[in-house]
Amino acid sequence: MLSGCVLVSCVGLARGQVRDVRDPREILRRGQLVVWVVKASTAVPRDLHIPQYRTPTPGYTESTTGALGQTASSYGQTAGSYGTSTDSASIAVPTAEQLAAAEANGGLPAYNEQTSGSFGQTAGSVGTVASDHGQTAGSYGESLSTIAQAGNAPAIQAAKAAQGPSKFLLEMESRLGLGFTGVQVKYREVEPEKLGEKLKSAQADEFPDLLVGTLPAAWWNGLQRQYGLAMLRPAIRLADGVSNGTVFSPDVAILAHAPHKDVARAAVIWLSEGSGACAGCSESAVLEHATKEARIAAAKASTAMAQLLQGNGLGDLADPAIAEIAPRSVRAMLATTGNESIDGSATRVEVNGAEVVGRLAAVMLRVVGSTDRAFGVAHPLVVLRKEEDGSWRVLHVSLNQPAWQSRDVGGVLVQGCPEKMCEGGLLGISQAAPPDGDVRPLTPELWWDNGGGSRLQVVEWQFADASGWSDAHLYLVPDTGVRLQTRVTAGFASLGGKYRWRVWSVGAEGEMKISGWKTLVVVP
């Protein structure tokens, strides 16, 4: 059985910097958790709530605290532009029955009814770009707090309490899926404009462990520093050619003085992995039924990631054909939403999945970064190739992407070859267009000539900024038909700049041929 303590995690624990959440599922089987659900009241696309969700280029830039969000006035409208003036004689305090009836008739849309699929789809359904994940903040409807402008807040709050939980709160509770774990969760719905006030006045027994939902600009522009931990910046879903959906992924923040710290951190790991079949599983549980080769490949992948997190190169662990992995890209994976930082010594590496087909292995990792002032989880994907001498070498590392995307891409890489498709052996490809150094519009077509014998073709790509090449990513092209030439839209090249790309041709039993690199300049 592969040990759960690799180089990085041992260093972190020795220094006492990592709050150990070794088995999130075990922690979530007991204990308590207080969750405040923050309901957005303005139609702000989730991708724009924190600018780091979508950077101007696929590269990485340093940001000051002020760059993490916008001023409150830049979000939606001023309070005075909503509803009727507070001194209007036409406003009366509704009863609980009136609130319920109005909501049922659409008069006070506290929550807009959604189908289950509208909060993200399964991996097998139709895919979306990153900005389409989930719903815009405004799709949750307006808040009942707008009635409070009438001036009789105590009576209104009593009416709300008599009405019971809103549909929004119940839907969020269901989507978070924490009830499955066994932990006792206490939910409370909080209006975004009152978040600071509520945090300031909260008593110890009701102080939150987690904030979830669509967090307001005020959180990123000051409240986080005052009340919360800095969180690892969310992974950006990049086009990969095969992932066909999203998972429900609200903003999540841990409170610095959370009453149930370990449970809160375990919950964040659970939520980051989509409540899937093995969301939050310990490494030992993941590898319990893995093959011997999968365990060996997983150990190599863990050691390689540990070395990268320490700022070192891969040395003999690297395949000769591996794409460059710049240290700045590894540091960017540990960037947070605040001024606090997480370095390699405060991380732990765990295996989140490992699969092997012949000479090719895909290992999904979980990197947990934890200090007293910062926390988060990243999900790198490591692809390894087996040498003639039987040793595994690292061919590719996608440093951070959503956990479900790592699972999707890794799963496709290690599928078997359908009958007769790979007969005759793997002959590889020859890149046809664009020619090296060419200039093309956004999302250009890439062409190559097929030699035959493959089940999958993979475009590996990198983006160049002022500091060099970014970390590499994979764009998969299932090769299910007989054709002499493949044309594919480079969905990953959606921003202007310089790219480079090459093609892996994957055949039976993980056999692989890799083309040379070609550069491409994309202009808007």
Description:
The protein is built from twelve helices and 20 strands. The protein is of the alpha+beta class. The strands form four sheets. Strands 12, 14, 15, 16, 18, 19 and 20 form a seven-stranded mixed beta sheet that branches. Strands 4, 6, 7, 8, 9 and 10 form a six-stranded mixed beta sheet that branches. It has a four-stranded mixed beta sheet with strand order 2-1-3-5, covered by helices on one side.
How does the SSE layout of this entry go?
Blueprint: H1 7-15, H2 24-27, E1 32-38, H3 96-104, H4 153-163, H5 167-176, E2 184-190, H6 195-201, E3 210-213, H7 217-227, E4 230-231, E5 251-254, H8 261-272, H9 283-287, H10 292-309, H11 327-333, E6 347-357, E7 360-370, E8 374-378, E9 381-386, E10 392-398, H12 403-413, E11 429-433, E12 438-441, E13 445-450, E14 456-465, E15 468-469, E16 473-478, E17 485-489, E18 497-506, E19 512-514, E20 518-523
Parallel strand pairs: 1-2, 1-3, 4-8, 12-20
Antiparallel strand pairs: 3-5, 6-7, 7-8, 7-9, 9-10, 11-13, 13-17, 14-15, 14-16, 14-18, 18-19, 18-20
Helix pairs in contact: 3-4
